[in-house]
What does this fold into?
Amino acid sequence: MRKKTTTNPTSYLVLIILSIALVAALVLVNRNQDNRRSAAFAGTDILLASSSASKSVGEKFSVQIYVDTKAMGSSDEKAKVDYVKTYMCFGNKVAIEATDTGDISEQVRVGDKFSVIMISQLEEGTGTQAGKTCANIEIKSEKPKAQLGEGTVLVGAVEFSALVAGSENIEIVKDMSKVTGFNPIAGSTDLYLEIGTVTGVPITVAEGATKWTKSSADSCNTNTGKWGCTASATGEFTSLGDCEAAEGCNVVGMGGYNRSGCNSQTGEYNCTLVENNGQYATMAECIQTDANCVKVNKWGHGNTAASCNTATGAWTCIQVADGEFSSKEGCEADAGCEVAVAKYNRGTCNTATGKYVCSESSSGQYSTVAECEAGGTTCKVETTAAPILNYRITYAGVKNNNECATNWPLTITVRKGDLVKTYSHTPTPDGLVAGNLRVYKGSLALTDFTASSGLSVFIKGPRHLQVKYGKDKQDSFYNLPGGEINLSTVATTSSVYDFTAYPDMACDVVGKNSTGADGVCNGLDYSVVKTAALARSSAPKDSNALVTDMDGDCQMSSADLSLLAQTLKERQDQQY
Amino acid sequence: MISKKYIRIIIPIVAVLVLVESVVLVNSLENQKIKREASNKPDVINVDQVIPEVDQVETNEDVTLKLEAEKLSLNVGQESFVDVMMSTSVSKSFDAVSVYVDVDTQKVALERVEINNSMPKPIVAKISKKGNVALVNYLISSPSGYRLASGDRVAVARIYFTPIDSGKTSFKILGEEVSEAESMLVETGTSKVIPFNSGDLSVSILK
It folds into this structure.
């Protein structure tokens, strides 16, 4: 007999309760359980974007950098961003215009949620990016927490140029990129945001126009005095430079040119650029000759000793209105200017060279320099038993083409126990590069220093901190007592100590109680260099005039400031 | 053998217990997290909770660096903290703010230095390797510097410590006596060192 199946109400109750338990468990699992501090949080994406993927050769285009932060767990709040480091690599189809030192700060703009560019530097790619060029860009926000960006945030934009036809992928190296910000759950701003995906931007560069034209009649950049130009097959300029420099675009406030007298030798007016309300818009218009400024075709030499060239026996002649000669040759050949017979007198004996120091004198005893310098037996090279320190060194941030990093005098202190002596010495470029830094070499005789083994050497550059070197090929802070440097008294055989892997650290430019370096790196040095960097100060090549120029590239920029901050942090890590 | 009738009663009871236990456990975890954040993270330092220090601070200068203790009297082993507060009577902008606080390591063990969000991120905020100095160093890259308006007061750092021996001890803001550890404020634009008022902070440690 078949048993009739009945449904017990208790079974329904069990089913309902278990369903509630399942739903509750799912809700609870979704709640955030991670309450660690200082841990990476949130999956944050970095992506690049450009207005279009197709460019023409010569075209300039902008690539925007975005980060996209995510909501935390069950919270609706998204992670906020206060710092982004992107390491963006690309091949030779495109380029970013950089200074000689690789600085690209002029090509980088900062998004409105961010405040400053900390680093913007071009570097050669390494590892998987070998052969490519990489832009290391660090941007941070100094805004209050409430004003930090979240979700999809524009970090900044970089100006590129399309160089060669072909396909290019501008990509972000994830491992070398970094994002920090505010974790709404942990409640702190010094946390790393875990980078999820990074997305580059593909660019196709087409064989484009080889000519250039002004972007528009309004494309004059009144900050630079250059026209904004775009590539065009029908453009009237054959190069971007010609287009940018076309007449009619001046720096606002410069106002053009004013005349300041007539140059009678050329028949042109002397003209100077003035800040406001110049009478002439262009230099060509200003210098143009007229009836009041004519070329004068007479010559004179002034009959002064200064205008007689005693080396050639000819007068130095200039065009003057009331000159007595009708030709330059006649003027130069005028009587009264003879070739001088040089004579020399001996000074002191240079014991390093074994020659006398000679100076020119009209009543000199010797008729040639060689005769004067010849020391014979009375002026000889003095040999010394002093130990010879042969060394190679680099300076932090000083690259091979930095033209103001020349003739930097070093203060070198040598120590063994209580025996200490300090020397001044100026090394010279060695023609080598270590890493990407220029190598300098020097050979210093440690006169009056009796020890030659177990030495330590303390080296301080003119705007640098004193660094201790204790061994050959030292590549980090030497924190042991004494040293392992051994020298001989023969320059050619004494070991060459390679200190290039641990560059002298740039920082020290001013002291609290002195106008020059005081051996201490602190906030005062930072402030002075920052002020100079903001003023964009510069110096002539081969000049040491700019003491705040940390990397010796003759100009002040954020790179100098970054170098100093790096030194200050490293020094405090060593000391504390 | 247990009958099916009993099983049908026991299963829902067990299910309800599991549900209640899950809710209690997760709420407990959340509470622990909130407590830990409250004790470790001075997101905004509540100045009202801090007892004013009693040592004399000179007031000759416009800017004052002052040490303020959570408690002026505490027991050995009881973790506490000292705030470094900066205030000014006239508006100032700073390119650099460096503060070094020295302690007697026979009396207290420095634990850590924490900073809040009211100033830009410092390049260094740490306890020295010897454990006797807490230091914080701000370098302001913004062209206008870090501006403090007249009457403003800001927490530069919070220094956590644990007393290790009884007696009276002092916290001291280091000045010119140690050239490489000189507390220093540098003004934006002029690059001049700004003089400031400061004083020692004394606390009593009980067994």
Helices of chain A lie at 9-30, 240-244, 283-287, 328-332, 369-373, 523-534, 558-575.
